[in-house]
């Protein structure tokens, strides 16, 4: 599905040197997902056959749909404290929502699940990155492309890359997340796909890959704000993202390579991610673009911001 793309300059500002305007890349979703409405710090979404209501602090405007549409949600998440942007809370099921249910995403199947941290196992705003990734993989040339997916969670990017013919290394610090990703692999009928499932701290794994001299054609980085590795290693996006990204830059193949970074729920600007990406890839010919990923609100056509992003791709002229 084609994604809506908007780009522009701030009034009175033009890029100079290595600067460039930020972009907003928005998607209306896919057949299995839609953002039905948003407002008053909440969002109403359709995941497959179920309608879900969740907190969304950035929905500062008023909802458009009549209240009954919201009251008919199959499940509603209530935060455990007054801060709606926190992860803790509980679900209230208004209908018989099963433990898991499938939705189709491009040409894979993902299992949705109501988790205690409000997510359902898939982030629809990532669709434009997934489409960009699969398009890039087609241009690698001879031999299978190699993909590294860090903080890979339930594996949407890993499975889409594998479906496109890539050899995938899927790295996550959560045993439960990897088990969920393997379930998605099974329902997507990709049991024989060349995917390495790695339970490890992302920083440690990438550092070892640099020492080994391994290379990848595409690297996806989707870190949390804070986290723990399988052996209790601390992850802090502000302290650890920069050295991780520098190591990832060293892992990129010399030709036909690309890297995508997204960051969620942090007190930072896309300009910060853009500056870091440009620093880390300064020695490589290619293009950086940065900005925000957003989802189109079906009820009013508004753009609901979802994450910051920065991505780099080598020059198409590389041979």
Order of strands, main sheet, comes to: 1-2-17-18-16-13-10-11-12
Biggest sheet overview: 9 strands, mixed
Q: What is the CATH topology assignment of one domain? A: Rossmann fold
- The number of helical elements comes to 7
Radius of gyration: 19 Å
Instruction: Compute the number of strand runs.
Output: 18
CATH architectural label of one domain:
3-Layer(aba) Sandwich
Assign the CATH class of one domain.
Answer: Alpha Beta
How much beta, percentage-wise? Answer: 25-35%
Q: Which class do the helix and strand fractions yield?
A: alpha/beta
Q: Runs with pLDDT <50, length 5+?
A: 1-17
N-C termini distance: 30 Å
Give me the strand/helix succession: EEEEEHEEEEHEHEHEHEEEHEHEE
What is the CATH H-level superfamily of one domain? Vaccinia Virus protein VP39
The amount of helix comes to 10-25%
Task: Describe the protein in words.
With 319 residues, the protein is an alpha/beta fold. It has a domain at 99-314: 3-Layer(aba) Sandwich (Rossmann fold). Helix content is 23%, strand content 32%. The protein has seven helices and 18 strands. The protein has helices spanning 67-71, 127-137, 156-163, 175-187, 202-212, 237-251, 270-280, and strands at residues 4-7, 23-27, 33-39, 42-47, 50-55, 75-79, 89-93, 101-105, 108-112, 146-150, 167-172, 195-199, 218-221, 226-228, 234-236, 258-263, 286-296, 303-314. Strands 1-2-17-18-16-13-10-11-12 form a nine-stranded mixed sheet, sandwiched between helices. Helix 2 packs parallel to helix 3 (156-163) and helix 5 (202-212) runs parallel beside helix 6 (237-251). The longest helix is centred in the C-terminal third of the chain and has 15 residues, at 237-251. The radius of gyration is 19 Å and the shape is globular. The relative contact order is 0.14. Mean pLDDT is 91; it is low at 1-17.
